[in-house]
Amino acid sequence: MIRNATEAGVEIMVSPYFNFISANATGYAQALADGVLATSGDSESGPAQGIGQTAMYDVFTPAARARMMKSVVSAAGSYGAVGVHNWWLDCQEPCQSPGMSTAIWGGKAAMPHAAVGAAYPHLLAEATRGAMTNGTVMLGRSAWAGTQRFGAAVWSGDTDSSWLALRQQVRAGLNAQMSGITYWTSDIGGYAGGGGGPQGKGFDHNIHSKAFLQLLTRWFQVCCWLCGAVRALHACAVACADCSSIVWRVLPSVPVARPQAADAAARGLPGLRRFRIVQRSLAL
Amino acid sequence: MACQVSGGSGSYNEVWHFKEPFRAAIIKVMRLRERMRPYVDRIYEEASSDGHPLMRMLAYEFPDDAEAAGVEDEYCFGSKYLLKPVTAANASALPVYLPRLAAGEEWRYYFNHSLLATGFRGGKTVQVAFALDEFPLFERISTHHTARAPLRRLKSDDDEGGKIKGHAYGAVAGGATTVVPSLLILGTLSNLYLLQLSRGIQLRDKGQLPLWTAQLFIAVSAFRCAFPNRYRGSVVLRDSWLSSIFLTRALATVSEVSWISQLAFVASDLNSKLAAREQAAWIDGAAVLMVLLVVMSQATVWFAVLLDQPNVMFYEEAYWAGIFVLNTLANGHVYRHQPQTLAWISLCFGAVYLPWQLGLHLPAMRTASAGKTGILSAVPFEFAAGLRRALTLRRPSTAAAAWGGTVGALWMICYWVVMPFWLLFVAQSYSSEASSARATLKNDDEGPIFGTKMVPGLEPSLG
User: Fold this and answer.
1) What is the pLDDT, as a whole number, of residue B440?
2) Angle between the N-to-C axes of helices B419-429 and B432-444, in degrees from 0 to 180, rounded to the nearest 10
3) I want to staple B213 with a disulfide (CB 3.0 to 4.6 A). Which of A22, A48, B138, B262 is the partner?
4) Quick one: CA dihedral A266, A267, A270, A272, positive or negative?
5) Where is pLDDT greater, at B155 or B276?
6) Predicted-complex ipTM score
7) Contact A193, A161 (CB under 8 A)
8) Strand partners, A185
9) Is the pTM of this model over 0.80?
């Protein structure tokens, strides 16, 4: 299947969860004992909860990094052997639930915890440098200035299917890009249906609804000119109870400038450019 | 690869699951994106090597444009495209601010090239109306390098090897090339020969106007064959100031007023030579009206050229139709009472020209110009810019499409090469030689040499 896809100009992306360890895993007790798991900010009693029965590695802890690195190298080797070089880093954001922050190596870290979005792709890039000669495309849900140099793209997560959300995509994308985060994208059509989410009234992904189809069409039109790296149709139809799967990736082999991405940050400091513009704007 | 969600309910996310017209609109934009691949590749390289973002706020691309700094709902994708996302339900029109471009660049609305006039450089807000499968998407086009580069397909995004900035995009779809504009130089020679012939014509009392008008028309035709151009798209053959729209238009104004003055003179004169009871008083009025119409047509075409309103050319063409309706009616009247060559030529011309102009050309122009924004382009009047453009903007091309294809070729040949023969023929008809020929004819009852062809029996009615 991978070969067929490659021949068709489509690249496969897998979604590993290197940043989690299942409570059922054989190494879980040892990890807990070694203190490589992030703990929730308001409790010293146990690890921060990940998805299901999982705990989250503290990506800033050297020991945790070493463990994660090992599994990444192993996975990169086996995936790479069959021609899969791209990671979809779902749930790589540091917060697992509202109000819960991750304690990181060196103590509580309200300030740097946003850096998890940079540290994790960095770790993967380091780990895969040897294994993946073509470089790696990473699609994640958080990013920080500089992550573009690892070939890490960010998408805006599970947005509402609403006109307001579409408007927000334009502004969010522009801000991300102007901040030097080059690879930014958005779920076409939004993700979460909902009758009226916090971001506005949604359309439930009812593909028989002309209102939703109109939104979807306009979203396509925006994303054609907005999302440089990756564009996903991440919406589910009305019959879909758990909107949990990317079903179809629009033009998945859109060039992601992988070789270039590797040296992007080595040469470019886009933030500086931004300051120049701010100065100019203020002067006007 | 349809979504198979646990539970087997399935999910309908593939483009073919969506109903029309949404499906077609989505497919259209996917194809657009596909065509842009080489362009996207390039802006990725820019991002990688120089740190330029892909999405750019207007102030990033146009730091000196004060108004652009405040625009939050538009952005550039790379340096070539400007987009205003449609983010409201049932939107069908939006105002779009287009930042001021440098000289040698222009904006073009991607989905309807006639929305903005040629050479539009922005610094203005334009109103854009769009259907479901369109949205305000503008291309920033360089007109600088077209002198050296051949015209390319406007919508082709695959000019690989070209740089992002300063790339060469032509005005008109390319494809087949044409040699017709180059061959028109033969028309220059034939017109110069006609001019030489005209110098031998001996004037008699009323012959001055037909001769001078013919000479003006022939001289301008010789020039236009040497430096052909087309106003729409500012297409030229030779990249010289002599090809400028302004110069051509100035000369053409002289020659077209000359031509119609000659026709009006002939119609009036032939009418006056009919027997008193056969003369039609309205023909004199029609002659005046013809001249008036040609003056109006010149005003219209200058308006179109200088104020960037190509669609207004429709009215110019409508005036021309009016001129030849009048000319055909007048000559029809003359010919009915006294069949003769000059009237016959005018009738032949009307028989060919009027069906084409009224039946095909004008309706086609109407259709083409009747965009969603009406006959006036969504461009503010800018006289100075229009004048500058008319003086300096040139897009050299030998693309057949740029020259109007077969119809354009026929038009140029007929108008600039064949028509001068007609005008010279008219002038000769009023020469003293023709006059003496007529005198001879009267005496000897021989066939005509020039001008009036006389049918036996009608001859005495000649004045």
Assistant:
1) 44
2) 60
3) B262
4) positive
5) B276
6) 0.75
7) yes
8) A155
9) no
Question: Does A210 contact B at CB distance below 8 Å?
Answer: yes
Q: What span, in angstroms and rounded, lies between the C-alpha atoms of A114 and A94?
A: 7
Residue B118: both structure tokens together: 């040629």
Cβ of B13 and A235 within 8 Å? yes
> Minimal Cα–Cα distance from A145 to chain B, Å?
12
Q: Render pLDDT for B28-78 as a digit per residue (tens, 0 to 9).
A: 887 787 778 778 878 877 777 777 888 899 998 998 888 998 888 999 998
Structure-token match 């450019």, residue found: A273
Could you give the 3-state DSSP secondary structure of residue A138?
A: strand
Which value, to the nearest 10 degrees, does the dihedral of the CA atoms of residues B433, B439, B442, B443 take?
-110
Q: Does A143 touch chain B (CB under 8 A)?
A: no
In the sheet with B105-109, reading across from the earlier edge strand, the strands are B55-56, B75-77, B81-83, B137-142, B105-109
Query: Where does the pLDDT of residue B398 fall: very low under 50, low under 70, confident under 90, or very high at 90 and above?
Result: confident
> Are B13 and A247 an interchain contact pair (Cβ–Cβ within 8 Å)?
yes
Residue type, A121: P
Q: Which of left, alpha, beta for A184 (phi over 0: left; psi -120 to 50: alpha)?
A: beta
Q: Do B55 and A273 touch (CB under 8 A)?
A: no
Is A177–B12 a contact, with Cβ atoms under 8 angstroms apart?
no
Q: What is the pLDDT of residues B91-150, one digit of tens each?
A: 888 999 999 998 888 999 988 877 887 778 888 898 888 889 899 999 998 875 443 333
